[in-house]
Amino acid sequence: METRFNIVADCQYYENYGAHDWDGEGECPTYWKAKGAHEFTVATDLTIQEVMELTQNPERIEELVGAVAPQDSDYERFGPIDWRFEERSEAAIQTYIEWVKARLADEPEDYGFVRYCAEGELQLSRSTVDWIEEQAKLIGLMTLEGNRYTYQTARFAG
């Protein structure tokens, strides 16, 4: 498995409370309120060469991040905060599985909470965690038995 990367952008989500009672006539009243964060996957399946080229041209990354958020409307808007490269590799799968296995030793019945914590502590987007779990299932490192996930120790060749 060749190492690939995604670019993930973290954005602030704003809701226009002024639009709640707006009838659509005339100019929309504005009262923007920050409501939370949202992640967007900006680019997928980048090679190491492509990542190196992008790091030499940060303006291009900023363009990609700015273009991926939905267009602002009278009701909502997104403001880019930061971006990061996320590795998609056998090593990333191994790190995630080992982290989750250790946490499930303490919370064996609550995989959803452990997954949520993994996203935060390991700085992974939901899409990358989904990808890791899909790959782990495909290669037999993660299985679902009833409503419980079990994990094997990853042993990759090479």
Write the topology of this structure.
Blueprint (H helix, E strand, L loop, with lengths): L3 E13 L15 E15 L1 H8 L2 H11 L7 E13 L1 H15 L6 H11 L4 H13 L3 E4 L2 E4 L7
Antiparallel strand pairs: 1-2, 1-3, 4-5
Helix pairs in contact: 3-4, 3-5
Number of separate strands: 5
How many distinct domains?
Answer: 2
Percent range for helical residues? Answer: 25-40%
Binned strand content: 25-35%
Overall form? flat
Order of helices and strands: EEHHEHHHEE
Distance between the termini: 10 Å
User: Which regions are unreliable across 5 or more consecutive residues at pLDDT < 50?
Assistant: 153-158
Largest sheet: 3 strands, antiparallel
State mean pLDDT (0 to 100 scale). 81
Main sheet: strand order: 2-1-3
Query: Structural class of the secondary structure composition?
Result: alpha+beta
Which radius of gyration do the C-alpha atoms yield? 20 Å
Count of helical stretches:
5
Notes on the protein architecture:
- By secondary structure, the protein is of the alpha+beta class.
- It has two domains: 4-87, no CATH class; 89-151.
- Helices cover 37% and strands 31% of the residues.
- It contains five helices and five strands, in the order ββααβαααββ.
- The chain has helices at 48-55, 58-68, 90-104, 111-121, 126-138, and strands at 4-16, 32-46, 76-88, 142-145, 148-151.
- A three-stranded antiparallel beta sheet has the order 2-1-3. A two-stranded antiparallel ribbon has the order 4-5.
- The chain is flat, with a radius of gyration of 20 Å.
- The model is unreliable at 153-158 (pLDDT under 50).
